[in-house]
């Protein structure tokens, strides 16, 4: 514990040091904080002087954390998070929809839904400082449980304890295949059994869409093609258009992914149509849970107004 007359680290010093610890590069850290590199370096040096210890090992080619720097980085992150929480709580007590809100979104939703949501957030909730983090389901669920994210946009149900789930919309999966495929000769809905005779290309591990597609295949005894996987939905579409197989495509992705002169054809399935439910989830214990429930209503309205090819829940 510091004596009363000893100087203590400032938030600016902690923020500067943590940026360098994250990037291990002074210029990149300065850019991330929108400050000059000399000012950043000065703040880090002042922190080292205050703590009477070296936090960084500097060479002409790289920056490394010392053992003390590793420990200080952990504490600095905790302090800054606590201060952010304090500011958020105070802002919330004064006015709802005010202060930081960290949203996590899965990659198979973000490009197709965020264009409808971000203008709405800016227009209806101008005091809400929204940040967006795109990552796979497992990552954003862990981060919302740990408090690093406030709410997440993903496929439901999550089966995660301690979260409130707000369904937003349901959407169908369409069968996507090359435009010269024999299936392109028809236009009516397909029986799911057609999957048994097709090579099905999937996203790689960690995408919930991959698991949903596998479940659809498993129901009819079909198998996925193990040799070819994609890291993103746009890549998956290109693989299919290039003749490497077929895939299941969420209908919300169709306007974006098929509007680029891609040699792709689509067919619907007969009822019951395979698909998924997308929704918002947030911690039940959050002090802002009532606000997030209202945000879910606003999101439904934005999706409905944008006329995305989905069925908005009531």
From TrEMBL:
Originating species: Streptosporangium minutum
InterPro entries documented for this protein: LysR_HTH_N, LysR_subst-bd, WH-like_DNA-bd_sf, WH_DNA-bd_sf
The name this protein goes by in its record: Probable hydrogen peroxide-inducible genes activator
Residues covered by the HTH lysR-type domain: 9-66
Pfam families hit by this protein: HTH_1, LysR_substrate
Highest taxon of the lineage: Bacteria
Entry-linked Gene3D superfamilies: Periplasmic binding protein-like II, Winged helix-like DNA-binding domain superfamily/Winged helix DNA-binding domain
Record-level Gene Ontology MF annotations: DNA binding; DNA-binding transcription factor activity
UniProt cross-references to PANTHER family, sorted A to Z: HYDROGEN PEROXIDE-INDUCIBLE GENES ACTIVATOR, TRANSCRIPTIONAL DUAL REGULATOR HCAR-RELATED
CC per GO annotation: protein-DNA complex
Similarity comment: Belongs to the LysR transcriptional regulatory family.
Swiss-Prot/TrEMBL keywords: Activator, DNA-binding, Transcription, Transcription regulation
